[in-house]
What does this fold into?
Amino acid sequence: MNAANPSKESLKGIMATEDSVATAKISQISPPTNANEPAPTAGLRFPLAARNFLKWLVPPVLGLALFIGIWALVAQGNPTLPGPLKTWDSAVQLFSDPFYRNGPNDQGIGWNILSSLERVAIGFGMAALIGIPLGFMIGRFDFLNRMTAPIISLLRPVSPLAWLPIGLLVLKAADPAAIWVIFISSIWPMIINTSVGVNRIPQDYMNVAKVLNLSEWKIFTKILFPAVLPYMITGIRLSIGVAWLVIVAAEMLTGGIGIGFWVWDEWNNLNVEHIIIAIFIVGIVGLLLEQALVLLAKKFSYE
Amino acid sequence: MEKYVQIENVQMVFDTKQGPFVALRDINLNIRQGEFISLIGHSGCGKSTLLNLVAGLATPSNGTMLCAEREIAGPGPDRGVVFQNHSLLPWLTCFENVYLAVERVFARTESKATMKKRTQAALALVGLSHAEHKHPHEISGGMKQRVGIARALSMQPKVLLMDEPFGALDALTRAHLQDELMKIAADTHSTVIMVTHDVDEAVLLSDRIVMMTNGPAATIGEILRIDLPRPRERLAMAHDTAYHEYRSEVLEFLYRRQLRPAA
It folds into this structure.
């Protein structure tokens, strides 16, 4: 008897084995597939892991390819702008010897990047050391909050580069001035985010602290600090973005060794390929810094 | 002890923008050691305020409050509190949450090993030994509330204060935890003051039900003694006439004599 077309007389016998008929029917219509996958094209059957990998990889690669394609088109129409291929050749040459030293103002790209990172680390580190505890206190004590609020509101919107002349005047040297600019620009997110975090601690946790009658130290280490940590890390992520942004601009104005100064120097040499490479370097390093902090944030998240 | 918790002529007035707000007035209540008391009433009748006063989280505007013959002068581990939302710290494991309370009470007199055993015993009491190293977001709502109870009990408090502890749970979990609470209270001979909305819960668990009038200026309307023999079994209660009589008395108070529910 054809399973797909049971006749009426044998319906009773079929009822008992209805389930097996149903599955037999389905298995005759199409080969067993995962419900989420579209029906595979003729002969092409990728395993699930490979398909997922491609799904993850293809869109960003496509985006990048599109970007490079547009760049190449623009470069063809504009003879002064180097295309992707020329820039790549230049980059290979540049990174073949990243750590040479030819003099105080002519060093390898590796040294330039490290030098900028060092300034960022110092400025950012100081901002964290001062900004985070200050944020805690502003969040915890309302009087301090209202005392500092006008100053913070006043100074926060000031452009980082407007701080540079003051830094050069007071500190009298380019390096400390650049670090000062990083410090004053990247401190605001850390203060504000930390103080918001302290304010946002759910009353529940403070109730626990009250009924257990915990000491101030225990409140800080077991309740305040872990509760504020996610906000603090958001503040740090914002700060690192600002700091890295600012250093490039500050170095353009102060000179010395650094990625920002290198950009300005290469512009003076009319080496446009190097400027484009610098854009990529700044972007990639910034991305790596941000991603490192995202990983850190994930480690401390408990949701 | 006859007057383990003593509340005398207590009044609670809050200063608000619209002027003084009388939350509670003329509260007089004596609780015997080992007694299970329920505070029941409409929303806004000051039950939680009264509980907060006993917990020491607020100070009464008038009157005296004593616990084991010592004045209640602030929160402390001798009055363990179980909140309606468990209030577990999410970055600590269940073990560490309970340990925090144990450490607070016993750090000066006991070794780390003893405190560790104490914490484990508290978790075993609520049946959560297997979840010791889990974080709150990895366990269910009922389990979280049990950890809250374990935390309160681990301090060996003189009085256990519970503010609608099972309010946020589904009916089945609530029933299960009520049974567990009865067993724990019996085992530990705890004095318990529980705020609840649930009439069945109050009649099942309590020795006495304190029924409060509607706010503002709420006071104790009536105290009903529940003379049902212990241990009380939920399923047997369904057929018990005395249980139903008590239940209807409470309902009568709440829904007939206190007709207007507070805002």
